[in-house]
## 1
Amino acid sequence: MAAYCAYVDCDAEEGPGPVDSLTLVPDGFSWAAYVFGPVWCVWRRCWSGLVVWTLAGLGVAALFAWSEISPVGILGIIELMLLIFGLEAAALWRWSLEHRGMRLADVLIASNREQAERLFFEHWAQNQPRQTIAPGGTATRMPPTQGIGLFADAGG
């Protein structure tokens, strides 16, 4: 089972409403970010990660050019940099989504991406206000029921 963070791009002030776009970010190590670092950043539109990747690469290149570290040591440093980037890729992606205005809507535990998406929409549908048709023919929103036996005007 894996954890997925569900980010939505919708009006946060209105509460649950239609989902314009859904992005599921799996938590954990990203092999794609480990192997294809800068390409992964561009694909995910994670520009801050690309800047970090570029600066780290330039730092390693400068270290190699101006130091007496052996090529094997530099290779170890690069491998460590790749490992850290693979571990932190999901956090960079989540940060860039929040920076673009998307909001965290749910955290899901699922065995795969399809199940996580299904769970998200089941949870999202349960939190939707019901719509009813008023006598005039216009749709009005009613808040979800609070439960049986809770009356605002109960008195005695």
## 2
Amino acid sequence: MADAPLVLVVDGAEVADLQLADTPMARAKGLLGKSGISGAMALVPARSVHTFGMLFSIDVAFLNADGAVIDTTSMCPWRIGLVRRRSAAVLEAQAGSFADWHLEIGSVVSWHEARLSRSRRAA
């Protein structure tokens, strides 16, 4: 997982905090055992997900190597998702989040380190 706070960007707009699961251990743990998520989690690389052991429903977006959303779905706990062969990464968020963020097939997703506000820099 990344050490610096990250921000999720959808079609050029910063929409939420992001957790990055970019190691085998971080991807294996994912959202397991959590009662919810504020923001989103990106699993890189990933082509499929499951919700075994999860306590809440999630929105799932499959991203190609350019960050374009190639498919989306919602999953209830205790499900196995289909493999998306063209997927390079998967974005997971609390169910309903994608609608709030206007994330859909064709959206372009990226993330960057959070910028410190002036008040946080002065502290």
## 3
Amino acid sequence: MDLADFGLDLVAALLYGVVGVVLMTAGYGVLDLLIPGSLGELICRHRRRDVGIVVASGTLSLGAIVTAAIFASEDQLGTGLAQTAGYGVVGILLLTLAFVVVDRLLPERLGQMLSDDVEDEPAAYVTGAMLLGVGAIIVGAIS
């Protein structure tokens, strides 16, 4: 690899990184809308492990989707960035759908369970598994 290729790879890494961070931040924002209260407060001040499990699962899923999209880009930076953003948005939409599906399947509202005074780790594990599963399905569709 010569210095010019190295420079282009650094630019690509920076741009893909920015796209990934924006998508994961958007995913966090969607979860913040779906779960009553502030995710930051629930995670940092109230130390809610159940909320952390759900947020971590969604973030890992989006990270995997972004990674798969980058691998599929075949060194076409402009097209790859657009595809990565597109797959990421699809991922956020499907992860939101998965959260809503779990919410409807449980006898209590998931968002309310995650923001009340009781930690609900079993519900968080089920939701986390659903989010990771959806992420894996999208990764499989990309590759």
